[in-house]
Amino acid sequence: MSDEPTHRITMLGKPGCHLCDEALRVIEQVAAEFNVTYDVSDITVADAATKEEYWDKIPVIFVDGAQHDFWRASEKRLRAALSS
């Protein structure tokens, strides 16, 4: 068993969002490199508070539950976050 920390990536987006599609491609690639899991949450079915806070920022990427990025995903920044 490894003592290395395991990270988790979450993306908040919506169907039909081209920026979300682009962000997901970045997440899939970087997650595979680091062997970490990711999930995608649909903001259209989120609670009202989540919609109010994040609707204008999607896609929003979280690493280990903390907001990491929004609008455009950066491979470089995501790799840096997973390396720490």
From TrEMBL:
SUPFAM superfamilies: Thioredoxin-like
Transmembrane segment boundaries: none
Record-linked Gene3D superfamilies: Glutaredoxin
InterPro entries: Glutaredoxin-like, Glutaredoxin-like_YDR286C, Thioredoxin-like_sf
Xref: Pfam families: Glrx-like
Name listed for the protein in its UniProt record: Glutaredoxin family protein
Species in which this protein is naturally found: Salinactinospora qingdaonensis
